[in-house]
């Protein structure tokens, strides 16, 4: 058999639908929980309604927040859609709506970018195409003809692959000198726990930071393989639970540990999931009827899956197209599963400068940005440029009145003085006032106006 | 499997070498004593002092009302200066009871809105708690009312102007009383709040320390010297412009920031556990501690050598103020990047990227 046939055979091997059904219910519940948590923390208003300015993604500046309290609408849609996913009701519509609403919100402002949000977007997109409503769902109750007990292997494999990608690339990203040879940034972060009774001294000692760094790197690189292997699976899952609960206790990372702990259940076989699904089924008096899965190899499906997989593998490597330090320039940094990798803090002061008199207006960032936005912007080149362009536009062709004096600005220069500290290094000059940021285009090209990282 | 067999020992060897390279330099350190020192030797005495000074102001003012002479007005003015200085020492602690009472704004907003003040006095029926009167009350409003050229005559002839001062003073008195009382219960929350969550008292202390120092730089110097207005000076933005004590208030504000960093007591005589000691206990951060300390020493001493008021300096030697501002600005960088990073304090309530 050639590689093509083996690949087709692997994707279309007949498997039980149970793990997929279990995944639908579990991930739907997580979607619901995290949306409700977002709402109850008041983040919709704080992050999307209050700030007058948002940092859009390149090419997505047409995605704008809804006016005022209408911003709650996508979140209400997410609540209803995640209920639809859990129950398997209007499944394609529910998954599509969830994907659209969630991705819309994420596209509004990159200040709030988190890898696990990107993961949720991807998984909800994948779910649209999977037959996860074909059993134990309201759709299957209404239309018994869609019921299946078996499905081809590719839906389950796609989800396992996506999780594998998250772990492997998180592991690859950790293979760098700061992480492995300096145990940074963990060493800095862990010392903050030295006040804790009993474990404080332990956490603050540098050998523990080294053990954590090396172990987490090894864990990320290998856990998908240990989970895939039936001999090592149970022990591997114990590690998954312990590892993520530990990170949840130590760092303010929200629901992400729970997303990973529950999503990785997709690696378990039908026999495992039947144990808890049967309880549920009994409770709602559901009986499976046996319908043979009918599925034939489809070249379109194979093509689409192969394309998706290749894209997923290539995107995190796009940073190789850029020279200079990845952590410093952050070119090709997002959408690459680089989690908890750096401790980076910046201080950015912006100036709108009259070209004729060379006099300037120092900008108070908090007049336009929320603390979260300032925190992220002060150390990320693309956001520094976006904010500069926003200021340039705001002050273009304006007449300013200062007491009895007035000044007309036609096309002011916008400059920034930025200093950044990375993984405990003393702060270094990041952007100098020599650069007129209005002359720099916002695009995917290498940003030469970022001063180089020394040592 | 063979591959794994060989990788594990290889990793172990690498790990041990990496570990050996780095000695354990973290010295045992507990943040608790910073909080206890701040609370007991600085914040609580600081608020008590402010209350004493505001009470003295109230007494002096009532005294003046009984006998409206220049001498009595001068006593009230001095009491106002003392209150303003005491306020500089506690305005950074804008959390807990102070945030509830909002005294950072109700006491400290400047420049005051003189039009609003005059119209309040003329028409009466004002509510000093209303948001439009935030600029028409507080310490800077008293600067305007006490130091107008014809202040004495106005107080002698306009009863409503006297009432207005009384209202401002009694509002400040009740607010500082609320803060002093609030700290009775808040103290234990504060001294035990050493976690690194963005809402913990330790994080609030660090963040507000940075924020207050930045505000000191921007409002006391940056705005007046024209840094936000294309270099066009804005003397009307000066704090306490009419009394001309802006330079003193600048010195006192920096003195307070410096005291928080060093962990000094309110008198400034005893050096307890502070941010500097914490930095010294962290590996590789002792030089940062020395840098910030030296910067504070410089910033505390420099304005003391100026012989003119800030407004006079703006004309006679604007470069002096511009240079000082630049020095303050570069000091903020050390605090908001290096120090905040070393302390591992978060600034946002949001989730961060997990693993």
From TrEMBL, chain A:
It is found in: Endomembrane system. Keywords: Disulfide bond, Lyase, Membrane, Transmembrane, Transmembrane helix. One of its GO terms (cellular component) is endomembrane system. It comes from the Bacteria. SMART domains: HTTM. Residues 12-272 form the HTTM-like domain. This is HTTM domain-containing protein. The lineage of its organism: Bacteria, Pseudomonadati, Bacteroidota, Flavobacteriia, Flavobacteriales.
From TrEMBL, chain B:
Gene3D superfamilies: M75 peptidase, HXXE motif. Residues 43-298 form the Imelysin-like domain. It comes from Fluviicola chungangensis. Keywords: Signal. It is found in: Cell envelope. One of its GO terms (cellular component) is cell envelope. This is Imelysin family protein. It holds the Pfam family Peptidase_M75. Transmembrane segments: none annotated. The keyword Membrane does not apply. It comes from the Bacteria. Its main location: other.
């Amino acid at each position: 058999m050639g590689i093509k046939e083996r690949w087709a055979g692997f994707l279309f091997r007949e498997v039980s639908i149970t793990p997929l059904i279990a995944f639908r219910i579990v991930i739907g519940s997580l979607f619901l929980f995290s949306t409700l948590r977002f709402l109850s923390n008041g983040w919709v208003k704080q992050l999307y309604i209050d700030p007058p300015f948002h940092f859009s993604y390149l090419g997505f500046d047409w995605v704008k927040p809804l006016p005022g309290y209408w911003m709650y609408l996508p979140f209400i849609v997410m609540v209803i859609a995640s209920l639809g996913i859990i129950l398997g009701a209007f499944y394609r519509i529910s998954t599509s709506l969830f994907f659209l609403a969630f991705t819309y919100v994420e596209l509004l402002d990159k200040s709030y970018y988190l890898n696990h949000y990107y993961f949720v977007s991807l998984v909800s997109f994948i779910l649209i195409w999977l037959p996860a409503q074909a059993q134990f769902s309201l759709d299957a109750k209404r239309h018994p003809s869609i019921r299946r007990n078996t499905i081809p292997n590719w839906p389950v494999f796609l989800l396992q692959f996506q999780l594998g990608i998250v772990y492997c690339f998180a592991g690859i990203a950790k293979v760098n000198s700061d992480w492995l040879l300096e145990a940074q940034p963990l060493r800095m972060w862990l010392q903050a726990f030295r006040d804790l009774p009993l474990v404080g001294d332990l956490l603050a000692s540098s050998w523990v930071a080294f053990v954590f760094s090396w172990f987490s790197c090894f864990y990320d690189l290998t856990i998908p393989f240990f989970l895939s292997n039936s001999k090592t699976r149970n022990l591997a899952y114990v590690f998954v639970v312990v590892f993520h609960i530990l990170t949840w206790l130590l760092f303010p990372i929200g629901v992400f540990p729970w997303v990973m702990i529950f999503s990785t259940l997709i690696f378990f076989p039908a026999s495992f999931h039947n144990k808890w699904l049967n309880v549920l089924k009994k409770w709602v008096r559901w009986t499976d009827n046996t319908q043979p899965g009918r599925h034939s190899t489809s070249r379109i499906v194979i093509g689409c899956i192969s394309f998706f997989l290749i894209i997923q593998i290539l995107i995190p490597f796009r940073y190789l197209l850029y020279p200079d330090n990845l952590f410093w320039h952050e070119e090709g940094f997002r959408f690459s599963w680089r989690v908890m990798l750096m401790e980076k803090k910046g201080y950015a002061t912006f100036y709108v400068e009259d070209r004729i008199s060379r006099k300037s207006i120092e900008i108070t960032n908090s007049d336009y940005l929320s603390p979260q936005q300032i925190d992220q912007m002060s150390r990320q080149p693309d956001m520094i440029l976006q904010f500069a362009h926003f200021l340039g536009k705001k002050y273009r062709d304006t007449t300013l009145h200062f007491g009895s004096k007035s000044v007309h600005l036609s096309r002011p220069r916008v400059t920034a003085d930025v200093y950044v500290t990375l993984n405990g290094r003393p702060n270094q000059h990041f952007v100098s006032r020599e650069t007129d940021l209005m002359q720099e285009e916002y695009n995917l090209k290498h940003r030469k106006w970022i001063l180089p990282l020394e040592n | 499997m063979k591959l794994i067999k060989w990788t594990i020992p290889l990793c172990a060897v690498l790990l041990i070498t990496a570990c050996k390279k780095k000695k354990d330099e973290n010295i045992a350190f507990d943040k608790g004593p910073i909080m206890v020192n701040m609370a007991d030797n600085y914040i609580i005495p600081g608020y008590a002092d402010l209350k004493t000074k505001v009470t003295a102001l109230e007494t002096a003012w009532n005294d003046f009302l009984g006998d409206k002479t220049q001498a009595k007005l001068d006593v009230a003015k001095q009491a106002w200066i003392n209150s303003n200085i005491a306020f500089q020492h506690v305005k950074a602690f804008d959390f807990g009871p102070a945030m509830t009472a909002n005294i950072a704004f109700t006491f400290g907003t400047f420049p005051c809105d003189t039009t609003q003040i005059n119209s309040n006095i003329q028409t009466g029926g004002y509510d000093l708690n209303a948001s439009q009167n935030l600029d028409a009350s507080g310490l800077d409003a008293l600067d305007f009312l006490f130091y107008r050229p014809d202040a004495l005559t106005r107080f002698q002839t306009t009863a409503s102007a006297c009432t207005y001062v009384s209202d401002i003073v009694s509002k400040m008195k009740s607010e500082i009383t609320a803060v002093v009382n609030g700290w009775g219960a808040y103290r234990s929350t504060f001294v035990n709040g050493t976690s690194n969550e963005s809402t913990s008292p330790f994080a609030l202390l660090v963040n507000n320390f940075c924020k207050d120092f930045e505000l000191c730089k921007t409002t006391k110097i940056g705005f007046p010297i024209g840094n936000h207005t294309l270099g066009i000076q804005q003397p009307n933005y000066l704090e306490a412009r009419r009394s001309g004590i802006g330079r003193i208030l600048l010195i006192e504000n920096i003195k307070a920031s410096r005291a928080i960093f060093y962990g000094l007591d309110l008198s400034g005589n005893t050096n307890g556990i502070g941010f500097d000691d914490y930095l010294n206990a962290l590996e590789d951060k002792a030089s940062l501690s020395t840098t910030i300390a030296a910067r504070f020493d410089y910033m505390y001493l420099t304005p003391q050598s100026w012989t003119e008021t800030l407004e006079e300096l703006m004309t006679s030697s604007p470069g002096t103020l511009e240079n000082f501002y630049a020095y303050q600005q570069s000091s903020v960088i050390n605090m908001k990047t290096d120090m905040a990073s070393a302390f591992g304090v978060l600034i946002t309530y949001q989730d961060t990227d997990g693993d």
